[in-house]
Amino acid sequence: MKSAAARAGLAIAALVPLVALALAVGLASGPGSISLAAALRGQEPDATVLFRLRLPRVLLAAEVGAALSVAGVALQALLRNPLADPFVFGLSGGAAIGTALVAVFSGSALAAAASFTGLLPAQLAAVAGALVAALLVFALGRARGQLVPERALLVGVVFNSFASALVLSMEAVLKPEQTQAVLLWLSGTLGYEALPLLAGAAVALLVPALVLTALAGRLNLLALGDEGAAALGVDVPRTRLLAFFAASAAVGVSVAFTGLVGFVGLVVPHAVRLVTGPDHRIVLPASALGGAAFLVLADALARLLFRSLGAEPPVGAVTALLGAPLFIVLLRGRR
To answer: E strands along the chain, which residues?
Structure first.
């Protein structure tokens, strides 16, 4: 029987070419045609399109896809529920509230002060909203000092419903252009961030991913139940706390850059487990690579649809259109 390290190496060796292929497809896809050879030689406008538009967008898709997939693996392990999704804890609702509040108060004295201090741009408001939601769900999901998975799941679902109603109510006081911007963000969009900002995002996403990878062995033991894991020496409350907030941080940073992109953290871990098995020491790195490839390809499809639709659909809509039927197929394959 192969060791976990050997199986992880095989999984990564199989997925790295897939990621490379996805990156190549993403760089070559768009509403207009460019010559990659000309762009690499610095010829315009090919160089500008490749290095200032397509490359930043592809890198952002890869980073966010990897982060959402890793967070999905962790949350499914914590809840012992294969249907758990990074947004099921109310993280999406908290981020949506933060973004909508920025839109509501734009132009006010509060917004002017926030703009001067740099404390309340839309992205930071999204991160703050997601983390506040995570704290709320973690606090209300506890009983007798311990996180109860079923209770946390229920609190997250209820909070998401409350957040949706609150955001819809706030949209009533927004200007049409503000409402459109909020709705576009809620649908999930990939922008053209500067490379230094992308590097910062990569670091911010790498830290929680490394924390979760370090906890992979303990996540395996949590599948035995809290009592079984504790009997084997796992500090269950501490493990749940670290994994929960590491996953929340990864989702919060992702939401800050792309809005609400669903199904990545649900579909990719399921697909990976069908190939690698349930060992989190393998599933976590494999899901990171699979999630990066999935979101890059979904974004490439969104850009290609521009040619036939005359408009580019949000990548969150594409992941939902691809993810929902794919998830049904995966569920049927698990029978």
So the answer is: 142-143, 146-147
